[in-house]
Specification:
Number of strands of chain A: 2
Strand content of chain B: under 5%
Order of helices and strands of chain A: EHHHHHE
Largest sheet of chain A: 2 strands, antiparallel
Radius of gyration of chain A: 10 Å
Oligomer: heterodimer
Strand order of the largest sheet of chain A: 1-2
Number of domains of chain B: 2
Largest interface: A-B, 18 and 17 residues
Number of helices of chain A: 5
Radius of gyration of chain B: 19 Å
Number of strands of chain B: 0
Number of helices of chain B: 6
Shape of chain A: globular
Order of helices and strands of chain B: HHHHHH
Helix content of chain A: 55-70%
Chain lengths: 62, 135
């Protein structure tokens, strides 16, 4: 699954570590999601959507 | 070096607090039990003393399980993949050597065999992590 997490994070001038801190996950988790190596669970995807004030489908797409 | 989040730092601290006291107790009990068994080999406490080091190991195991449960979903996934592959490699090796033992190969000490699990886990962990970290 593709995503535009890196773009959203850059728009908010957040580092991977800051995003990880905000979501309560590791920086490695954010890195693998951004690189498309790992698809997050639905609860984590909802947390991301809430943080960026977007719908899940605006962040993740096939 | 990967920068850790506050949650990971707290989890690491908690792990150290829960891991080291029983680990130190394990070494003390192990050395103490061995010393007693060496001087009093015919004691009626032979069996309880021989397995006494297992008690602190139960708490070491508890600390590791609690640490794993505090991991985030991706870390758990990596842990699970590594654990399953390690288990399969151990099963494959055990069956293979079991067949060889049937052909006269010397029996393997179980403690030595069990000690190989940790290094094997870390080798497999390296490859599993590399799979996800590659660009």
């Amino acid at each position: 699954m593709e995503n535009n997490l890196r773009v959203l994070r850059a728009e908010r001038k957040m580092s991977q570590a800051e995003l990880a801190e905000a979501l309560g996950v590791s920086r490695q988790t954010i890195n693998t999601i951004e690189n498309g190596k790992y698809d997050p669970s639905l609860p984590l995807a909802f947390s991301m959507a809430g943080l960026f004030d977007k719908k899940i489908e605006e962040i993740f797409f096939p | 070096m990967t920068k850790l989040t506050e949650k990971e730092r707290q989890s690491g601290k908690q792990y150290m607090k829960e891991f080291w006291p029983p680990m130190i107790a394990y070494v003390v009990v192990l050395l103490g039990a061995q010393a007693i068994l060496r001087y009093y080999p015919e004691t009626m406490w032979e069996i309880p003393l021989a397995i006494a080091p297992v008690i602190p190991i139960v708490f070491v195991t508890r600390s590791i399980v609690r640490f794993i449960l505090r991991m985030d979903e991706f870390q758990k996934k990596i842990f699970m993949e590594t654990a399953v592959i390690t288990l399969l490699v151990i099963m494959f090796s055990a069956f293979t050597y079991g067949f060889l033992e049937g052909q006269g190969f010397p029996p393997v000490n179980l403690i030595v065999a069990a000690s190989m699990i940790c290094p094997l886990y870390f080798v497999i962990f390296f490859f599993v992590t590399r799979k996800y970290n590659g660009e």
